[in-house]
Every structure is written in structure tokens, then in C-alpha cells.
Design brief:
Layout lengths: L4 H17 L4 H9 L21 E2 L3 E4 L8 E5 L3 E3 L12 E12 L5 E3 L4 E6 L4 E2 L1 E3 L17 E3 L4 E11 L6 E7 L4 E6 L27 E2 L4 E4 L3 E6 L2 E11 L14 E6 L4 E2 L1 E2 L17 E11 L5 E8 L5 E8 L2
Parallel strand pairs: 1-13
Antiparallel strand pairs: 2-3, 3-5, 4-5, 5-11, 6-10, 7-8, 7-12, 9-11, 12-13, 14-15, 15-17, 16-17, 17-21, 18-19, 18-22, 20-21, 22-23
Length: about 325
């Protein structure tokens, strides 16, 4: 799998790009100054867990450019508050808590700036970094910009554009960390706690990695960039083609230098029985929207599904994970229906 030196290559590329963006005399100095994040928009509770380098606390502001755009913004994301969805609310799972936060874009340039929605925002809750559900409602517009290519949001110099975003998390997630990944030209990471209980620290980070020689057991961590863990498959019903299973894939970003993260990309294959009969994954890992860049020293977990032929499948199952460089690891273990 990919080794740590690839982080060094990525870091060097980011540094080179930053240097190019900063050229041009006084203008470059202004850009460098604008890149300093500000934590002046929110107080830090005395009980709040410390954050790794490269992360900001919810309530802070940070410099931002949309991907492929030149307009400069300062973005602030408030802490989340409980919300009561209306009958018009979309995508709030039964039994989950609705949360909202304010997001404000301030035009820091000297010309009229345009927002095209050329960025992604992901919210993850808990130590395992599961993806929160996005919802919209009356007054909760979110960060969608339909028709923005033809009619973008325009803001005068020094002016602002504000919106409210909504996410839903399980009820028992109160006090768990809530991490926001804001992806544009450079990713920004903000974290606070799900309201409703005292803030809890992040737990469950991998203590060590297993060797990549030979087969791995389900639940083992393998050192990669980011680290990878494949959980034990669990039965999830049947289909016309066979038995359906769910399996958790977890990624841990052990890189802890400023704001560089990683968007996992890989392909998956599953084989069953002594004859290694190939099954089918329903999802393509490289296309999962839940796999946004991962904050430093944080985990991201997604659940994917596969189907194996036949009505009764008990015994060995192997899952092969192949990264974009053609390197692979294989997890093997017994499963039951």
C-alpha cells in the first residue's frame, strides 16, 4: 500500500502551489496574511478536548477559495444548535437529532466575488467518523447553489453571504465530536461537539498496524496513507442474486502536519468459499461522497455492501483492497448468515 513518503510528495506540492500563489510583491503578502485562520469568532469551553494541529474549532473563520476559482473569501462556521424539523424537512432519519449551524462567506477581495458552489462540505460524527445526514428545511437552505454557473451568488467587496446548514445525527451521539470538512482549493477542518451532553474526547484511534505480508484478519489496521481497516462482514438480507452483506471500511489519517488530508480512493473485490467465487460490491469506493478528505488524527468510516451468489453462504470470505497504485491487501475471515 502507499507509504508515508507519499505524504511528503503531497506536502511539497502544496507548498509549491502556495509559493506560486503568493508571488507578486505586496499582493502576495496580503494573500499570505489572509491565509492565517482566526479563532476569534467563538469562545473555547474549558472542557473542550484539545484539537490536533491543522484543525480549527467550530466558531472559527478561515480563508477560502472555491476549487478552480480566484475569488478570495473568509468563511466562518458557527457551533451547531439543536433544531426541530418541520413537516417540510428532507432527509432526517427516524430517531435522529437535527442540528443547524450558520455559515458566512465574507468577500475579502477588491472586486465583486462570485460563489458557484465549487466546493464540498462533509460532516462526520463520533470517533469512528460516520457521515451525518444532510437535511434542508424552511430556513435551512444548506450549501447548494442550483443554477450557479449561469447565475452565481455575487457579493460586493467586504460584503457577506450567509446561509444555514442542517445535519442529522443519531440521538446517542450527544457530546461526540462533530467534524466538518470544507473542501475547496485547500481543505479546512473544523470540530466541535454534538450538543446535548458534555464534549467527549476522540477514542479508538489505531494503536498499531498489522504487517501487510499474508492475509489480514477482519478488524486489523494496515499502515497506509491513510491507515485502513476492514471490519467483519455482517448479513444484511438476501437478494435475487444471493446473500447480501454489509461491511465497514475505516480510514485513519495519521498525518498531523497542518491542514493536509487525504481523500481515499481504491477498488474492492470480494471472494467466497474455497473456490474463491467472486461476489459483487454495490458501491464503487472512489465514488462514495462520504469519503471527503479526512482531518488530521481523525477517522472516517463508511458502510458498503456486497452480494455473494447462492442462498446459504457460511465460511471464508476474502476482501481485497487495491489502491490507485496497484498495491493491495487482503482481509480474510469466516462469516455466518
Amino acid at each position: 500500500m502507499k507509504k508515508k513518503h507519499r505524504w511528503a510528495v503531497l506536502a511539497a506540492a502544496v507548498a509549491l502551489l502556495s509559493g506560486c500563489a503568493g508571488e507578486g510583491g505586496a499582493g502576495g503578502q496580503d494573500q499570505a496574511a489572509a491565509k492565517m485562520p482566526s479563532a476569534g469568532h467563538g469562545s473555547v469551553p474549558s472542557s473542550a478536548p484539545a484539537l490536533p494541529e491543522g484543525m480549527l474549532r467550530l466558531g472559527s473563520s478561515f480563508p477560502f477559495r472555491e476549487e478552480g476559482r480566484s475569488d478570495s473569501w473568509q468563511v466562518s462556521v458557527s457551533a451547531f444548535s439543536p433544531a426541530k424539523p418541520s413537516a417540510k424537512a428532507s432527509s432526517v432519519p427516524d430517531g435522529w437529532r437535527a442540528l443547524t449551524a450558520g455559515v458566512t462567506f465574507t468577500n475579502t477581495g477588491s472586486g465583486i466575488a462570485e460563489l458557484h458552489g465549487s466546493f464540498g462540505v462533509t460532516a462526520r460524527y463520533g470517533s469512528e467518523g460516520r457521515t451525518a445526514a444532510v437535511f434542508t428545511d424552511t430556513g435551512v437552505k444548506g450549501l447548494e447553489f442550483p443554477g450557479a454557473e449561469a447565475d452565481p451568488v455575487r457579493v460586493r467587496p467586504g460584503g457577506t453571504y450567509s446561509t444555514t446548514v442542517g445535519y442529522a445525527v443519531p440521538t446517542d451521539a450527544a457530546g461526540e465530536p462533530l467534524t466538518i470538512t470544507f473542501e475547496g482549493d485547500d481543505p479546512a477542518y473544523l470540530e466541535g461537539a454534538v450538543p446535548g451532553a458534555p464534549a467527549r474526547p476522540v477514542t479508538g484511534s489505531p494503536a498499531r498496524a498489522s504487517s501487510t505480508t499474508g492475509e489480514l484478519k477482519f478488524g486489523d489496521w494496515v499502515e497506509d496513507s491513510p491507515w485502513l481497516r476492514v471490519g467483519r462482514p455482517r448479513a444484511a438480507g438476501t437478494t435475487a442474486h444471493g446473500v447480501r452483506y454489509a461491511v465497514d471500511l475505516s480510514f485513519f489519517n495519521n498525518f498531523d502536519d497542518t491542514t493536509l488530508g487525504h481523500r481515499p480512493r481504491a477498488s474492492l473485490k470480494v471472494f467466497t468459499g474455497a473456490e474463491l467465487t467472486e461476489g459483487d460490491f454495490e458501491e464503487r469506493l472512489s465514488n462514495l461522497p462520504a469519503l471527503a478528505w479526512i482531518a488530521p488524527q481523525r477517522m472516517a468510516t463508511v458502510t458498503v455492501h456486497f452480494t455473494v451468489p447462492g442462498k446459504q453462504v457460511e465460511g471464508p470470505v476474502s476482501i481485497e483492497v487495491i489502491d490507485p497504485y496497484g498495491e493491495d491487501v487482503t482481509y480474510t475471515g469466516d462469516v455466518k448468515n
